[in-house]
Write a structure and sequence with these properties.
By secondary structure, this protein is mainly alpha-helical. The chain is built from 6 helices and 2 strands; from the N terminus they run H-H-H-H-H-E-E-H. The protein has a two-stranded antiparallel ribbon. Helices cover 65% and strands 2% of the residues.
Length: 225
């Protein structure tokens, strides 16, 4: 089961360096950056609509609102499965649809099936669980890539700083970086290491994203295999 796009190692490039030149890594970065805004939308929708439906259950409109809210969760789940497939190269199977039963009218039977559907509730749970993970993955991605690429490209932009402000302080007024050619070289080496670590970390977080989508947005039990 492939979690992210298959590794296509560049000829002559050591395996540990492969993620730096693989398109899958860039797609995984895009996915991580989109995680936060997407998760905020999903979380807001689920909390607002389900709370509204639950609060209105004492009235005649509460149940229809709750059913429509859950039906919307299935649509959002489909959109998330498409995002995972497009950016992470992982196909998440569709969950089993609501199964009406009994002799009730079709609309009432469908509403009851939506309310009983475990896969529907799991897609609502995904929106709640995904938000903290999205905050983490977004923060880690932005931090590692900005630090890594910033240090790696330091010689390209360091000289554009004002002559009287070319000292780059680390930890407040402590160590200085970039004030001498040797220090620039050290910064580049550190930046290269951090960038490589960012590539591997991003790919690892993509595996977690895929597992989360398969566990909560896909079929339940043996149906997901």
């Amino acid at each position: 089961m492939t979690a992210v796009h298959p590794y296509k190692r560049t000829a002559g490039l050591p395996a540990p360096l492969a993620p730096l030149l693989e398109p899958a890594t860039l797609l995984a970065v895009v996915h991580s950056l989109l995680n936060l805004p997407v998760a905020i939308v999903l979380f807001t929708y689920v909390v607002t609509t389900l709370s509204l439906g639950a609060g209105l259950l004492v009235t005649v409109v509460g149940l229809p609102v709750l059913v429509l809210a859950l039906a919307g969760c299935r649509l959002l789940g489909a959109a998330e499965r498409a995002r995972v497939r497009l950016l992470l190269g992982a196909r998440v199977a569709e969950p089993e649809p609501p199964a009406p039963r009994g002799d009730a009218p079709r609309l009432i039977a469908w509403c009851g099936a939506v309310l009983r559907s475990g896969s529907t509730w799991r897609q609502a749970l995904y929106a709640l669980v995904h938000l903290p993970w999205a905050v983490f993955s977004f923060t880690v991605t932005v931090t590692l890539w900005s630090v890594g690429l910033g240090l790696l490209t330091l010689p390209a932009w360091y000289w554009s700083l004002p002559d009287d402000n070319r000292e780059i302080h680390v930890l407040g007024d402590g160590a200085l970086l970039g004030s001498e050619p040797f220090e620039l070289a050290v910064c580049c080496l550190v930046g290269a290491a951090v960038t490589l670590g960012a590539a591997w970390t991003t790919r690892g977080m993509a595996v977690v994203d895929t597992a989360l989508a398969r566990g909560l947005l896909g079929p339940s039990g043996r149906a997901g295999h």
